[in-house]
Each structure stands twice: as C-alpha cells, then as structure tokens.
Design a protein that fits this description.
Elements: H1 2-30, E1 38-44, E2 54-63, E3 82-91, E4 96-99, E5 104-106, E6 117-127, E7 129-132, E8 138-141, E9 158-159, E10 163-167, E11 174-180, E12 183-184, E13 197-203, H2 205-211, E14 216-222, E15 237-241, H3 273-288, E16 297-302, E17 315-316, E18 320-321, H4 322-337, E19 347-352, H5 354-365, E20 373-376, E21 399-401, E22 406-408, E23 410-413, E24 419-422, H6 423-433, H7 442-450, H8 472-482, H9 484-499, E25 503-508, H10 516-528, E26 537-541, H11 556-559, H12 563-578
Parallel strand pairs: 1-11, 15-16, 15-19, 19-20, 20-25, 25-26
Antiparallel strand pairs: 1-4, 2-3, 2-6, 3-5, 6-9, 6-10, 7-8, 9-12, 13-14, 14-16, 17-18, 21-22, 23-24
Helix pairs in contact: 5-9
Length: about 600
C-alpha cells in the first residue's frame, strides 16, 4: 500500500509539473521578455573660443561615496568606485561625445552592468598630444605636465563638477545622463628653492632628437651643510632613484606642523601617518645639518615622460635614450655646478621599488660609471618571476590553467597573504585608463620600457591585455634587453670585474607585489655562479611588505622614511675602500 501510494503521488506531481511548465511556456510565447533599460552618458565639451580639436581618453566615473570627487576614488582594491573609458579624437569645442555600453569599464566591464540607483557622476578628459618621433612613427600620448603622469591631477585636463544622478533602468527605455566638462585642472607651481634644496632643468639633446620636440631632464638637488663655507670641497654624488616628487622628498627644514589634520594610512594601518612622515623628514634635516652626517650631494632625477612618471633610467625603443641622457648629459652638468668629484668611483645609486630596479639596471648598463647600487624592493629583476608570472614558460598571465581548472593569479597582497587584486583586475583598470600602453600605470610602463616598437608606433604587448595570453617573441626581446638576472649571467665574464662589490639588494619576504620571488632567483646566480664573486649582499625582511630597505630594527612604515640614513654609511665605507690612489677623500670630510 505504501509503495502504491508513493507511485500515485509521484505520478500526480509529475502531471501537475507538466501542466505548470506548459502554462509558463504559453505565457512566454504570449508575453516576450522585456529588455532592461539602456543607459548612455553624453559628455559636453566646452566651447572655448580659438580652441582646436581635442584628442585623449574620455573617462567617466560613478561613485556611491560623496566624501570625495569620483576621480580620486579609483583604485585596484575592493574599495574602488566605477570607471569607464573610451578614446576620442578630433573632438571640436562645443560638441558632445556619447559613452554607452560599448565602452570598457572597471570593475564592472560595461555601463550596461551598472544597476539602478543613486550615484555621483564625474567625467574627465585626459589630453593627448601628437609626437612625431625620429623613428618615423607618429603617436598620440599624454605628455607629463608636472604632476608625474597622474590622469586625475594633470594640468590642462578637462573635468566636470560632480553631481548626483539617478539611474532608473526603466524596461525598454534608454536613459540619457548629461555632464559638462566645465573645469580645467590648473598648472602646478614650481617648488621653491631653499638653502639646502635646489632645482635644475636642462634640455636633453638626445631626447629632443628622439621625440621630435624639446624634452627636458631635471633634478632636485640636496646640497650638504657647509657647501658655501667650504668652497674647495668636492663631494661624492648619490642618485636617489624613484618616482616623481614635487621637491626633494623626506627633507623638512621646519618642525612638523602641529595643526596638521591627522590622516589614517590604510596601507600601514597607522593613525596620523602624515604627521609621522613630517617628524621623520625634520629628523633627517637635523641629521643632515649636524656635525657627523657624511657630506655628499644627493639628487632625485626628474624624468617624467609621455608614458610614466619616470623613464626607468635606461635606453628604450619606445621612450628613447634616457639612460645615456641621464648619465652623459644630466649627471656631468650637475657635478660641475655642485662641485662633485665627477668620476665613476664617487657616484652611487640607491632607491626602492621602481627606484630599486633603476639603481641595479643603471649599475649593470654603466658598470664603470657608478661605484655601487643599493636596490630595495626592486621591480622584477628576473622575468621568470615577473611578479607571479614566468613570461618564458607560462601561456597565460592571468590564470594558472590545468586540464580541468584554472586559478586567477594575484597582483597584490598584505603580509598575511590576503589578496586585494588580481593581475586581470590590475590590467583591465589600466586598459580602461588608456589603451596602447597609455594608462600611465605600472604594467604599461614596464611594457613601454621593455618592449620593441609595434607597427603602429606603440609598444608591443607582452600579453593580450584582455585575455592574458603571452607573446613569446616579445618575451624573448624582454629577456635579451631588460631581464637583469639574465643579463648578469650572460655578460658576467665581460662585466663581472667591474661589478664586484657593487650589487646590494634588499626586499621583504612578503613583498606586496611578490617582488621577492625574482630576488630569490637572482640571489641563486649571484651567490653560486659568479666569478669573480659579486661581493655584495642580499637581505630579506621577515614578513615585510613593500618596500623594505634593509633595516630590521624598524617596522616598514618607518624604515621607508629613512632611505638616505640607511645607505649613507655604506656609501662612505665603499668609497673610502675603493678610491683610486691620489683621489680626494678628505676635502668633503669636514
């Protein structure tokens, strides 16, 4: 009886289900599904008298947070707001441009995916200029205008006043949102000179020839205490490589501002980190001007360009001969003006992250022109560990793929291994900000520096920006020209004698961008196979994130504020040990 009952009820349920399905199918045939409402954004360009057509990257931001302008709320981590981008060319003043679902977005890929709701909207045009290079290519790029290639702060860029909008998504309708580029980012004032900080700028003959227009190199110069009262002293030169500071960073000649509003550092989980930074900058000033600090000249180079806030200080097919221009034009000019010793044995390099890679690369490419490098948390120095990608063996940069499964590769982490973005995320954001390696961001500048020129005049992609598929031919070019570990191993019989004792590398073993991976591989070569021995040091910071500089006594948030004090004693020790017979090792030691 139980079995019969179960069969009966099962048959009845199946019959009712078939009736319901048939009813739903009939309704579907009778009532076609209504598509969700479409959305488009019309951006109006100002009607400026006498203004010509505009080229650039049009960016539109949508934010749920009214606390700041949307243009300052775009980032790679989960706290980002929405951004969409498209190219515009020859836009006439007073006209409109329509951005719709075809424009690429981040983190949502399309405007079509933006849900109904209230948002703050803002548009911005990142302007491009036309360059006619010496290699015959004509390219359109965003020239740096003193801000260090920051699209949201670049002087001359047009942007709109943020306002609140309501996205409705009414079925079957197209909603139009309108914004007007009613503002222009103003110019940036030149930084003032002081007793200790000077600012220099020269036109580079080499770079001007390459770019087909005047191109400049600059430097922020920190001169030693007693420079004026010791006119016969001649000084060692230290080049502090890094990004684009407005003035010489980390040096403050007045006490910290006790009225400064404290700011929380999300990166270091530290309250009032801006006040801490001022305190350490003032402490450096007091040490620099005190009786025991080594007397030397320190410079920070200004070499922002159409692709990034600096050039990576090497010669490049896409950026031009920045390495030669810095070493053979800028450095001699500064050494003459600021009474430096003016020889390779008295020049030193240090820096972190980008600056760490530059310090090591410049030392390798100009082995006799410099007497030592101190490379902290360097960008990938072995492309078998291009962060977490082996560009020679992996087929895809974004995923580790097997026969049945694939796993996304991470881009950033904290010291506990918590991941805040993937490689696909980081690269798609860059593609939104600018195609053809024009985003002004990290992955694109590596590509611009390391890649050969493509047929269109822009850098050849190391991988497809949308899919992550790696180009083997481009990888081979990178290996032969910019893989620093490969170059050392290949060329050590020729340059090893000129590099002995000059290579020093420091990195945290939980670097935020996995940069320690390439250092491990490089250390294997340096410590096991170099003849003559490399004679430097490679050190790791326990659980230290980006950018650890070799100081095990302080947390990373504080050690990063003391680069100059970390390396000055090492520089003096190296200089006194290696100075040639008869060299001046006294006039600057007062």
């Amino acid at each position: 009886m139980r079995i019969t009952s179960v069969v009966h009820f099962a048959a009845r349920a199946l019959f009712l289900a078939s009736i319901a399905a048939a009813t739903m199918n009939a309704q579907a045939r009778a009532e076609p599904a209504v598509e969700p409402g479409k959305l488009e954004i019309r951006v109006a360009f100002p009607a400026e008298p006498g203004a010509g057509p505009l080229d650039g990257r049009l960016l539109v931001m949508l934010s749920t947070d009214p606390a700041a302008e949307p243009r300052f709320q775009i980032r790679e981590n989960p706290r980002t707001q929405q951004i969409l981008g498209m190219n515009v060319e020859g836009v006439k003043p007073g006209s409109e441009v329509v951005l719709d679902g075809a424009a690429l977005g981040f983190p949502l890929e399309s405007l079509d995916a933006v849900p109904a709701g209230k948002y703050h909207i803002q548009a911005l045009l990142h302007k491009y200029e036309t360059f006619r290079r010496a290699d015959g290519h004509v390219v359109k790029l965003p020239m740096d205008r003193g801000e260090g290639q920051q699209w949201n702060r670049a002087p001359g860029n047009l942007y709109s006043t943020p306002r609140e909008v309501l996205v409705e998504r009414k079925p079957g309708a197209t909603q139009t949102l309108r914004v007007t580029l009613d503002k222009t980012i103003p110019p940036i004032a030149d930084p003032p000179s002081t007793k200790y900080i000077k600012h220099e700028r020269i036109q580079s003959e080499r770079l001007t020839k390459f770019w087909g227009r005047p191109m400049y190199l600059g430097a922020h110069v920190l001169i030693p205490e007693g420079f004026d009262s010791h006119p016969d002293a001649r000084y060692p030169l230290a080049i502090f490589h890094g990004h684009h500071p407005r003035t010489f960073g980390g040096f403050r000649e007045t006490p910290p501002d006790d009225k400064l509003k404290p700011e929380y550092s999300e990166r270091f989980h530290m309250t009032a980190y801006n006040r801490v930074s001022e305190e350490y900058a003032y402490q450096f000033y007091r040490e620099w001007t005190g009786p025991d600090y080594p007397r030397m000249v320190i410079i920070e180079i200004q070499h922002a360009n159409p692709y990034y806030d600096d050039s990576y200080a090497v010669n490049s097919a896409n950026l031009g001969p920045y390495g030669d221009a810095i070493t053979y034009e800028l450095i001699p000019y500064l050494e003459k003006k600021y009474r430096c010793l003016g020889s390779g044995w008295a020049r030193f390099l240090y820096g972190g992250s980008t600056g760490g890679w530059e310090a090591l690369a410049v030392q390798l490419f100009y082995p006799t022109e410099y007497n030592g490098c101190y490379a902290a948390c360097p960008d990938p120095i072995d492309f078998r560990a291009y962060t977490v990608v082996d560009i020679y063996q992996d087929k895809n940069a974004y995923f580790d793929e097997g026969p049945w499964h694939k796993v996304a590769r991470p881009a950033t982490r904290d010291y506990l291994g918590h991941i805040s973005s993937t490689l696909e995320d980081s690269n798609r954001l860059e593609l939104v900000l600018g195609d053809k390696s024009r985003s002004g961001q990290q992955w694109d500048i590596w590509e611009a520096v390391y890649s050969p020129v493509g047929p269109d005049g822009y850098p050849r992609r190391i991988w497809d920006k949308k899919t992550g598929v790696i180009d083997r031919k481009v990888a081979e070019y990178w290996r032969d020209h910019y893989d620093l570990r490969h170059i050392m191993e290949r060329d050590w019989p020729r340059i090893g004698k000129d590099l002995a004792g000059k290579i020093n590398i420091y990195v945290g073993d939980m670097d935020s961008y996995y940069l320690n991976n390439a250092v491990y591989l490089t250390e294997e070569f340096l410590k096991k196979t170099t003849n003559p021995p490399y004679g430097g040091e490679v050190l790791y910071g326990d659980r230290a994130e980006h950018c650890w500089n070799g100081d095990p006594t302080r947390p990373n948030a504080l050690s990063r504020l003391r680069y100059h004090q970390m390396y000055a004693p090492k520089i003096v020790e190296r200089l006194l040990k290696t100075a040639p017979a008869g060299a001046d090792v006294k006039s600057w030691r007062y």
